[in-house]
Amino acid sequence: MRAIVVTDETAGLAGMTLADRPEPEPAGNDVVVRVHASGFTPGELTWPGTWTDRLGRDRTPSVPGHELAGVVSALGYGTRGLTVGQRVFGLADWTRDGTLAEYVAVEARNLAPLPGDVDFTVGASLPISGLTAWQGLFVHGRFEVGQSVLVHGAAGGVGSVVVQLAREAGAYVIGTGRTADRQAALDLGAHEFVDLGDDALEDVGEVDLVFDMIGGDIQKRSAALVRAGGTLVSIAGPPEARPADGLAVDFVVEPDRAQLSELVQRVRDGRLRTNIGHVAELDDAVAALNPTERVKGKTIIRVRP
């Protein structure tokens, strides 16, 4: 099969190449998915799991990519809940070959059915941003109806989903970002927008929940805005500052079939939009994932037409 591979951690994105790799075999409780579309997070080339297996052993050349949408082509021993020929989407395992390939072996529990009226490219754009937003808001942030939520990077991949989910769930949503992101954040459902370059973040006042994708000084200043009993949720690493009378939580997104199903149903209903910036074919993936200009939204690699 054809796949994007990486062999040199120091080379970063420039070290990607299109190569031939053996088709994967399913282990117990696995499925093999014939990949139609794949998502990619540039930061994953800094994750240890991209380069080593669960025992810390080198596993290069490795195939990056963790988001996928495709069709089940084989079942491993003992696999239940999915069938050959079924459309699926979800997350590949962190320490195994990933989704920038024509086939990938995945634990069945990491996948959810993809309805026939949802395009594969949309399915592949949803797992990491969608699950991160869902888990940050409802699991770790313990959001309650009527709370105020400050969303940093409100027009980005994760932030755009947080804004939509929070607004639908009954939050008062304040988004932040660059000047050029203002209208996008408001269109997604933010009640207010703070330009981090020109506006004073502290003018927001107290909020119940901060969802931080930035870290650093912005995170420290945001912690001071969390009212008593509130929560700062971070995906930018362990919080350097904590609310005076609240919680600070950092987490790594986890696969969850039920949550994936909730997210894709919202896409079908028109209640949730994903943030796709560019779609490229597998033959053009290396160039697409090494853009010369900033791409707004997620780049999706279409592995099959």
Structure characterization notes:
The structure is a single chain. With 305 residues, the chain is α/β, with parallel strands linked by helices. It contains 7 helices and 15 strands. The strands form 3 sheets. Strands 3, 4, 5, 6, 7, 14 and 15 form a 7-stranded mixed beta sheet that branches. Strands 10-9-8-11-12-13 form a 6-stranded parallel beta sheet, with helices on both faces. It has a two-stranded antiparallel ribbon with strand order 1-2. Helix 2 packs across helix 3 (157-168).
How do the strands and helices of this protein lay out in sequence?
Elements: E1 2-5, E2 17-20, E3 30-39, E4 67-75, E5 87-91, E6 103-107, E7 111-113, H1 120-125, H2 127-140, E8 148-151, H3 157-168, E9 172-177, H4 182-188, E10 192-195, E11 207-212, H5 216-223, E12 226-234, E13 247-250, H6 257-269, E14 276-281, H7 285-288, E15 298-302
Helix pairs in contact: 2-3
Provide the residue-averaged pLDDT: 95
> What series of H and E elements makes up the topology?
EEEEEEEHHEHEHEEHEEHEHE
Low-confidence stretches: none
In total, the number of strands is 15
How would you describe the shape? globular
Portion in helices: 10-25%
Biggest sheet layout = 7 strands, mixed
User: Could you tell me how far the N terminus lies from the C terminus, measured between alpha carbons in angstroms?
Assistant: 16 Å
User: What structural class should be given to the helix and strand makeup?
Assistant: alpha/beta
Work out the helix count: 7
Radius of gyration: 19 Å
Strand content: 25-35%
